[in-house]
């Protein structure tokens, strides 16, 4: 069957893989907070159905606000069910397994290369924190950057920004220049209350580009990726349980290949948790090439339809993901995720829910005040690091309209050294880089020419010079700063999502 229009879903692994879910959910997560090595291993898997002592109070809190079909983006959630990090950080799960990410561009056979993309896509869903939790909702203009140090001495870079608040949109950019890999994505969660369950319908897409492949030497070989929807079961009574559900797609238009992957939810009387099934086929001829099966938190298998050979595609049971590194909070700007949410995160980790609520409310009230000010002054807000997609026939971004926003920079597709310089000019990513943009909200002048509000300087749209960020490099006079990744020592440990037998 043909792949439906890809406005429905998006990614992170993997491909992540990895916006702000406004729903009760753990999401097969993905990564981070503030203090351990990026290669720390997760402990063994734990149960998803963890019931917090305060759950009864949470239910009363939620019930007082919900009606069937209600939009969860309007519901205020108690802080104990919050994951102590922003959704912009959580998206980095998409890139959490470099051992499945980096080999993809090296494979010559297009079908085998497509299979490697599917392996990468499926490798990150097992990463999750214990319990059923949701990340902090990013505020408009919030940014998060980080990087990975790979064993071969190369790096991967990640830049993200909350490009819309209502509806929520989290836009992100990832690139590993030496490996010819680029990912652009926008995550657009839409949440619903479904009685004893909460659902997050994961709209948006991500586009993975292998820049050393394909006929278009600038855009490379593109893989359009969506992601499954996410469900939190038992939010009113019974044990809380996190599930992935519904169909997601990976599509390579240039090679006429498509994967239809179903994340299966457990029925009332039959089925099992965390199961997947699916096919890889030639979209042009309709020929099915492979069948997929298994558990997204355990062994996943691929079967060659013609030879009937079945083998393990990826085993998540004991897989270890690589956490990204972020600059110390002391070097971060006011609107960067970790600095912005630091007081809230500290209170969550200390289980001081009153303080967490107070700190979270301060940020949300500030966002409302900023929005009111923009309305009063006739200011139209625009993202700082991302620009609107120029789609349509003949457009610069033709075929990528569902991204909505894309990184506002020219990044060389062929010269890794040049690309690295351009990426580091977009925003501070590495230790000792400085943000020179002095970004504030609102960032643009009033639409009225008579406005008394002066325009703030806009960022260089090419981002090919160090106008936005400067890097001290090897300067020995620079202070030595200990590297930090995005996870704190004090935070509850992330676990692989294998079910206990």
From TrEMBL:
Residues 441-475 have a biased composition (Polar residues). It comes from the Eukaryota. Residues 441-501 are annotated as: Disordered. SUPFAM superfamilies: Oxysterol-binding protein-like. Residues 488-501 have a biased composition (Acidic residues). Keywords: Lipid transport, Lipid-binding, Signal, Transport. This is Oxysterol-binding protein-like protein OBPa. InterPro entries: OSBP_sf, Oxysterol-bd, Oxysterol-bd_CS.
């Amino acid at each position: 069957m043909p792949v439906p229009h890809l406005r429905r879903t998006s990614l992170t692994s993997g491909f992540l893989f990895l916006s702000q879910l406004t729903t009760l959910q753990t999401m097969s997560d993905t990564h981070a907070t503030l203090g351990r090595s990026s290669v720390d291993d997760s402990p063994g898997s734990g149960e998803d159905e963890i019931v917090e002592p305060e759950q009864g109070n949470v239910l009363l809190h939620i019930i007082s606000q919900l009606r069937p079909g209600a939009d969860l983006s309007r519901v205020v959630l108690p802080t104990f069910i919050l994951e102590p990090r922003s959704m912009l950080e959580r998206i980095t799960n998409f890139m959490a397994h470099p051992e499945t990410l980096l080999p993809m561009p090296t494979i010559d056979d297009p079908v085998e290369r497509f299979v490697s993309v599917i392996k990468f896509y499926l490798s990150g869903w097992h990463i999750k924190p214990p319990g059923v939790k949701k990340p902090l909702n990013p505020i408009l203009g919030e940014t998060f950057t980080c990087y990975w140090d790979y064993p071969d001495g190369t790096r991967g870079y990640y830049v993200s920004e909350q490009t819309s608040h209502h509806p929520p949109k989290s836009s992100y950019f990832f690139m590993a220049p030496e490996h010819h890999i680029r990912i652009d994505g926008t995550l657009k969660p839409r949440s619903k209350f479904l009685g004893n369950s909460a659902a997050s319908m994961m709209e948006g897409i991500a586009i993975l580009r292998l820049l050393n492949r394909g006929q278009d030497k600038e855009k490379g070989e593109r893989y359009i990726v969506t992601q499954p929807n996410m469900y939190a079961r038992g939010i009113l009574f019974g044990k809380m349980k996190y599930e992935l559900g519904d169909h997601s797609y990976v599509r390579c238009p240039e090679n006429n290949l498509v994967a239809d992957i179903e994340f299966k939810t457990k029925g009332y009387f039959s089925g099992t948790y965390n199961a997947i099934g699916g096919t890889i086929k030639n979209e042009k001829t309709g020929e099915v090439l492979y069948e997929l099966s298994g558990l997204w938190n355990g062994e996943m298998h691929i079967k060659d339809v013609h030879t009937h050979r079945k083998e393990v595609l990826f085993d998540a049971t004991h897989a270890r993901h690589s956490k990204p590194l972020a600059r110390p909070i002391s070097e971060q700007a006011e609107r960067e995720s970790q600095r912005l949410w630091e007081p809230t995160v500290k209170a969550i980790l200390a289980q001081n829910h009153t303080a967490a609520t107070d700190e979270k409310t301060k940020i949300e009230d500030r966002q409302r005040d900023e929005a009111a000010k923009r309305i009063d002054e006739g200011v139209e807000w625009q993202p700082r690091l991302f620009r609107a997609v120029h789609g349509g026939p003949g457009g610069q971004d033709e075929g990528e309209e569902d991204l909505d926003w894309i990184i506002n920079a020219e990044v060389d597709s062929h010269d890794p050294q040049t690309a690295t310089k351009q990426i580091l000019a977009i925003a501070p990513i590495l230790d000792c880089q400085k943000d020179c943009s002095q970004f504030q909200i609102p960032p643009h002048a009033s639409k009225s020419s008579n406005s008394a509000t002066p325009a703030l300087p806009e960022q260089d749209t090419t981002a090919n010079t160090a106008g936005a960020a400067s890097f001290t490099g090897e300067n020995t006079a620079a202070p030595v700063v200990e590297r930090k990744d995005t996870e704190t020592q004090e935070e509850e440990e992330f676990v692989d999502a294998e079910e206990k037998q």
